[in-house]
Each structure stands twice: as C-alpha cells, then as structure tokens.
Amino acid sequence: MESVHPGNHNLDTLSHSQISKEEETFPSHQLYTFQAPWLVYGLAWCNRVNSPYSLALSSFIESCNNKIILVELNDKTEDFQQVVQVDHPYPASKVAFIPDYSGTRPQLLATSGDALRIWEWSNDNLKSKALLSTNPESEYCAPLTSFDWCEVNPATLCTSSVDTTCTIWDVETQQAKTQLIAHDKEVYDVAFQTGTDKIFASAGADASVRCFDLRNLETSTILYEIPDDSTPILRIGWNKKEPNYMAALVMDSSKFLLLDIRVPSLPVAEMEHKLTNHKRHKSVNAIHWAPHSSSHICSAGDDCYTLIWDISAIPRPIEEPILSYQSDREVNNLQWSAADPDWIAIAAGNKMQILRV
Fold first, then answer.
1. How many domains is the chain built from?
2. In a designed cystine with 3, which of 23, 55, 95, 105 is the match (CB 3.0 to 4.6 A)?
3. What sign does the dihedral 317-319-321-322 (CA atoms) show?
4. Is the pLDDT of residue 12 over 80?
5. Cα distances (angstroms) measured from residue 137 to each of 48, 53, 88, 90
6. CATH number of residue 139's parent domain
7. WD repeats span which residues (predicted)?
C-alpha cells in the first residue's frame, strides 16, 4: 500500500510533534504516477519556473538500446503524458537539465554514460546538440559515472569517470577546460559547491570524498575517508543553502553521512535510513537536499521508503523522519524540484512518481 505520514506542507515549520504514527493512504491529489515500459533510473526536473511539472526520465536496460523520454503533467487530465522519446546507447548514469530558472538560455539536457551528451529541448523535440568525449579520436572512452551542472555558471559542467578523472567542460564551446586525476580508483560522483564555480567535490571507489579548487589544482583536500575500509562512496550532494555542509552515500549501507567541510575527516552525523519501528536495514540508494531549506534532506532506498529528515537538531541524534512515503518497489533514485520545492520525484521500478510534501 502506498502511504505517507501527514504533515504541514511548509517544511521549515515542521516539527517532530506533527508526525502521525499511523500511516494513511496518500491523497490522490498529492501523488501522480507515470508508468514506463522499462525500469526507470535517471530522472530530472525541468528547472524553469514556467515548466514546473516537466521531467526527463532514462531507462535502465541491460543492452545498447536505452531510452530518454520527456513527460509533462496534464493539468486537465491529471495524468503524465509523454512528450518525446529518443534513443540512448547504454543506460544513462545521470540526466539533468541546465540550471536556467529564468529561461534565458536554450533548454539543454545533459546525459552521461559512454560519453557526455548534450540535448536541446525545443518545440516538443529533443535534438542531439553535442557528444563530448575526452578521447574523441577513439570510438571508446572510459564510462562516465555522473556529472554536475554549475548553477553559478550554467555553461560549465563537470563529469566523473571510472578512469579516476574529473573533467570540467565548457558546454558552449564544447571543449574540455580541465581534466585532473581526482582519486586513486574510480570516481563515482562529482558536485559543485553551492554558490561558486571554482570549488567542487568528488567521491569514489577509494572510500574518500575530496575537494578541489580550480584556482589551485596542485593540491586537494580529503574531506572524508572511511577509516580502514575500501567501501566506495557512491553519491555526494552539497546543501543548497549552507555551502559548508554536504551529504555522502556509502555503497550497500543503510546509512548516509552528513559532513562539515570545516571539520574534515569527522562526520557531523551518520543518518540511518529507516523508521524507528522497522528492524530491517536496507541500503539507501539516493539522497537529495531541499532546494529551499538548509535543514531538510530526503533519502530513499531498497526498503521502498522515501524519507524526509529535519536535521536542525544536530548534533543531537535524529531518530525519526518528519515525513515518509512507501512505494511498492525499491526506490532507485529521487530528485527534489528546484522550480517548485513542494514536489519530490522518485524512481521506483518502472514507475516515476511525484509526491507533494
């Protein structure tokens, strides 16, 4: 059964006293579902304020015949409709729209996988604009695991790769500006620090989170390293309102970490992705900070739950989320809408659902 703990829609005013211990059926007007013919993995909200209910989805099919589709919520029918579909070789490791909220730039969509692909969405068409590779002379290059648009300068994008490197791209000139060896092993994620185009962090198979300053690439800072362990760190994300804080997701773990870059090597907190009355510990697969609040973060995982946490009480332990939603399949991915922060999108099996929080 799909259910949610009721709560105030304004996350900044939520408190633990407002949590109902009894789960209720999620109201239909607060939940919309798109059924895909394949497993949904990548998902991205359109960042434009005038298109708040448009999303890009990518398939996870174990072949060279994958898909990228754009869907929009129809206000009249209250159903998602597919706008356009394009072929994508290999599953996309990530999809994301350019962070252009005012609509002054072309509406670009980036996807990573065997290469970095830039698409332009115009007049209900999704056209290939560029295919960027660090090895253009060869048909093959090291797979890209992730990327991040720079919000301060949307012409800049950074990719991470299994070949241990990160590459800074100029999307307008379609040229690589900088490439550096970031880790000792595969790099699994990369993210620009909130509010700057000079600093970014990366995470990888060497169990570390590292920070780089493009003004001085001779050195890097190890923000966190799992002690005496080789467990990869798969995902990272900067707090959207407090640039000193970030979150990190460890492979095959039911916990995710909160880090303060001013205090390297020591996590601010280890958050357990579960409800208090649940004894089974399942892996957390995705984390995403609220775009409008410094104290709220969302996690989702193999337990089929999507949980929203209020971390304002840290360093005191945070034992219970302020909001929870249970789907009927494991949740592989989630994204919090920047254009309308009342909504979160999740990928659960072959469903994409948007939830009003």
1. 1
2. 23
3. negative
4. no
5. 36, 40, 21, 20
6. 2.130.10.10
7. 180-222
